[in-house]
Amino acid sequence: MGEVEISARAYVKMCLHAARYPHAAVNGLLLAQAPQAGGCLCLSDCVPLFHSHLALSVMLEVALNQVDVWGAQGSLAVAGYYHANASLNDQSSQGGAWTPG
């Protein structure tokens, strides 16, 4: 299994997104440049998406397309997804977890 690194920028943006909406579940996308063969996947940025209505497929599809186009301008690709529940003790994924293809 390869190594994964997360930048301070991406980590802080995820934490601030969850802290801004402590009453709601939040999610977003993690972005990275294409790794070299056998190299480390460096998650350099994240894009916060929603803090309500996490499973709306139309809104999610539009957001994915926009992030994909925006990321391509900076040579970034969607490399992951984050989800934080509203309750600190709730560790369920609520069906939103997926693997980008």
From TrEMBL:
Q: What does UniProt give as GO cellular component?
A: EMC complex
Membrane-topology annotation of the record: Peripheral membrane protein
Query: Where does this protein reside within or beyond the cell?
Result: Endoplasmic reticulum membrane
Residue intervals of the MPN domain: 4-101
Which CDD domains does the UniProt entry name for this protein? MPN_UPF0172 (cd08060)
What name is this protein filed under? ER membrane protein complex subunit 9
Q: Which family does it belong to?
A: Belongs to the EMC8/EMC9 family.
| InterPro entries associated with the record | EMC8/9 (IPR005366), MPN (IPR037518)
Question: Which organism does this record belong to?
Answer: Sarcophilus harrisii (Tasmanian devil)
Query: Subunit comment for this entry?
Result: Component of the ER membrane protein complex (EMC). EMC8 and EMC9 are mutually exclusive subunits of the EMC complex.
